[in-house]
Amino acid sequence: NAGVTQTPKFQVLKTGQSMTLQCAQDMNHNSMYWYRQDPGMGLRLIYYSASEGTTDKGEVPNGYNVSRLNKREFSLRLESAAPSQTSVYFCASSPIRQETQYFGPGTRLLVL
Amino acid sequence: AQSVSQHNHHVILSEAASLELGCNYSYGGTVNLFWYVQYPGQHLQLLLKYFSGDPLVKGIKGFEAEFIKSKFSFNLRKPSVQWSDTAEYFCAVSGGGADGLTFGKGTHLIIQP
């Protein structure tokens, strides 16, 4: 089992460009999450999907959109990237909400 | 809203020293508690977790943590650290109205050989 996979690993964008971060899990988990990690800030929840077909905002959703494509896949889209979105993005999944979350390897994003 | 405080942002220890990292959370109701570790350049891995039962929980690599409900604390301990324990450690809490995990800001641990 690969667990949680994320693509791409690294990305450089110019301000105003758009991109989609991909996440997939093969553990048959119901819940999936997107976090961003910034120095000295820990991880903050951007969006989550408690189950297939549902998505909800987390602590820092502004500037992002998500799609729960199916049970396995949960993508994060930046419509118009801003330098403040320079961060490391982690996708995670859990069997159900409040259960242990398993994290992907992360995507390092630099917005110039 | 739920909040998590980690008291030490940077800790430097020598090998074989004992370790205790503090973690306090704000919500007084039912919570699940976690410690995650992030080794340099890697993703977060679960060290241990507490859902219910014995408040002293043991995790991987010799780590343990004690849940003290009256103090809203979940401190991480290890009797004797190794150089390979150099990493960032995050305390996290689920529950208390939070949608996902609420993380502390992390403790950067450096073990000197």
Order of helices and strands of chain A: EEEEEEEEEEE
Mean pLDDT of chain A: 94
| Greatest chain-chain contact | A-B, 23 and 24 residues
Share in helix of chain A: under 10%
Which value, in Å, is the CA radius of gyration of chain A? Answer: 13 Å
| Biggest pleated sheet of chain A | 7 strands, mixed
Work out the helicity level of chain B: under 10%
Q: Could you say which structural class the secondary elements and strand pairing of chain A correspond to?
A: mainly beta
Q: Could you give the distance between the termini of chain B?
A: 41 Å
Average pLDDT score of chain B = 92
Low-confidence stretches of chain A: none
What is the radius of gyration of chain B computed over CA atoms, rounded to a whole number of angstroms? Answer: 13 Å
Task: Characterize the largest beta sheet of chain B: strand count, sense, and whether it forms a barrel.
Answer: 6 strands, mixed
Describe this structure in words.
The complex is a heterodimer of chains A (112) and B (113). Chain A has 112 residues and is mainly β. Chain A contains no helices and eleven strands. In chain A, the strands form two sheets. In chain A, strands 2, 4, 5, 6, 9, 10 and 11 form a seven-stranded mixed β-sheet that branches. Chain A has a four-stranded antiparallel β-sheet with strand order 1-3-8-7, with no helix packed on it. In chain A, strand 5 (42-49) and strand 6 (56-57) form a beta hairpin. The mean pLDDT of chain A is 94. Chain B has 113 residues and is an all-beta fold. Chain B is globular. The interface between A and B is medium-sized, with 23 and 24 residues.
Brief write-up:
The complex is a heterodimer of chains A (112) and B (113). Chain A is mainly β. Chain A has strands at residues 4-7, 10-13, 19-25, 31-38, 42-49, 56-57, 64-68, 74-78, 87-94, 102-103, 107-111.
